[in-house]
């Protein structure tokens, strides 16, 4: 019995062997943008933030692929993926894409990327030049409409419709969160963790000292209770000795009374010695 294999399995690579960024400045910007969104959406199970992840929009054609520097997808589960295959994601394309320019980028490459993102459903596309600290923005007026460049006059203070992020170009390029805070750099995040660690260590020391004081107080209470127990035992023993002495005296008196009765004298009629 033979089996015909009509088609070979299609391989969708998840890497091209190239580094995420070509220089430190580009890497810093990618890390800053991705890190901010990783943190912002960390507790939302239906938001995917990806960095340099291959995106395949067409099933059966692995040659149609791009790996955006950063992209965000709303409405898809936060699970591990070797790549983002559109047909496995209910057709939900990344809504927001960030590209950070490197010296090797060409105009033709940038035009091709813009065409790719427009064709396959990206709603907002941002191209950041880390050397000049400028950016270009592309948005759709409505679903199905083409991506259009935001006019230069509107770039300073432009707010992402999806993300609520504001782009401030007053002095270089600063990305500002909806709460009004500039995006954190890697150094900011490291310093923040160090501050949290120091605060945590200080809190731990305070809790340890408080526990030590409580332990010492409990130990003093235990010693006091033991002393009280010993004192109560001593009082009990003293009372028992008093009772024994009284009992011995009673028995002695009974013996004397018995002797008087043997002599014919009723001790109950006597007033006492010298009466």
Automatic annotation (TrEMBL):
<feature type="region of interest" description="Disordered">
    <location>
        <begin position="217"/>
        <end position="275"/>
    </location>
</feature>
<feature type="compositionally biased region" description="Basic and acidic residues">
    <location>
        <begin position="217"/>
        <end position="264"/>
    </location>
</feature>
<dbReference type="InterPro" id="IPR008538">
    <property type="entry name" value="Uma2"/>
</dbReference>
<dbReference type="InterPro" id="IPR011335">
    <property type="entry name" value="Restrct_endonuc-II-like"/>
</dbReference>
<dbReference type="InterPro" id="IPR012296">
    <property type="entry name" value="Nuclease_put_TT1808"/>
</dbReference>
<feature type="domain" description="Putative restriction endonuclease">
    <location>
        <begin position="19"/>
        <end position="143"/>
    </location>
</feature>
<dbReference type="Pfam" id="PF05685">
    <property type="entry name" value="Uma2"/>
</dbReference>
<protein>
    <recommendedName>
        <fullName>Putative restriction endonuclease domain-containing protein</fullName>
    </recommendedName>
</protein>
